[in-house]
Amino acid sequence: MDETGVSESVPLEASTFDATSNAYAPASPALAEPAIVSAPETTNEASAAVVAEPAGQPAPVLQKIGQEIVTTIQTLLSAAVYATLIVTFVAQVARVDGMSMAPTLEDHDRLIVNKLVYEIGDPRPGDIVMLYYPPNPEKMFVKRVIAKEGDRVQIVEGRIYINDLPIRDDYIPPDFRSHDDMPLTVVNQGYYFVMGDNRNNSSDSRLWGQVPKKYIVGKVKFRWWPLQDATIFN
């Protein structure tokens, strides 16, 4: 009974009948070899496919790098164009050389000059402006507008009179005031009379005359360096 139970549990396709023992015997292991041998072949083919895959990658990588380079160049060109437009029409960075505007501005101060403001308006007395030096327009100066077109300007003992009234210039310390005289002068149409705040040491309209409006580049709006002296000018 036990032998019959065992023999029935053995699948026919995995056994052979032994006439001597009058029983089924397990099939030879050689019957299973083809399945074992074929498995590595499938694995090898899959490995070959995995190894061959990276060979197609460099082209997309190079294409991506090329796109990034083009994008970077476009960004730099755009920034250059915007900077040129800003410097040409809107604002300009300038540096003070000399002490003619002391103590308001010191040597080597860095400034932001608003170039647009005088495209839509006119300079006013009290404005600190950047201008082309009339005797040599290749140079640029920073001065303060004292009088506009049509004004009568006179200096007596260093005191400035505009249309017969003394101007308020409390921003000038006593040590920076001069004691010079200048006869009455009428500012021409389209011109301005400018001076440095360091009245004792400034080359300005007292020496080289009035400044045409077309020579006034813009209004000094901000001193950004030195940082501890950062100032916004009205």
Write the layout of secondary structure elements.
Blueprint: H1 2-8, E1 15-18, E2 23-26, H2 33-52, H3 58-90, E3 91-95, E4 110-114, E5 128-132, E6 140-147, E7 152-156, E8 159-162, E9 165-166, E10 182-186, E11 191-195, H4 205-208, E12 211-212, E13 216-225, E14 231-232
Antiparallel strand pairs: 1-2, 3-4, 4-13, 5-6, 5-13, 6-11, 7-8, 7-10, 8-9, 11-12, 13-14
Structure, described:
There is one protein chain. The protein has 234 residues and is α+β, with helices and mostly antiparallel strands. It folds into 2 domains: 60-88; 94-232, Umud Fragment, subunit A. 27% of the residues lie in helices and 28% in strands. The protein has 4 helices and 14 strands. It has helices spanning 2-8, 33-52, 58-90, 205-208, and strands at 15-18, 23-26, 91-95, 110-114, 128-132, 140-147, 152-156, 159-162, 165-166, 182-186, 191-195, 211-212, 216-225, 231-232. Strand 7 and strand 8 form a beta hairpin. The chain starts with a helix and ends with a strand. Mean pLDDT is 80; it is low at 1-15 and 28-53.
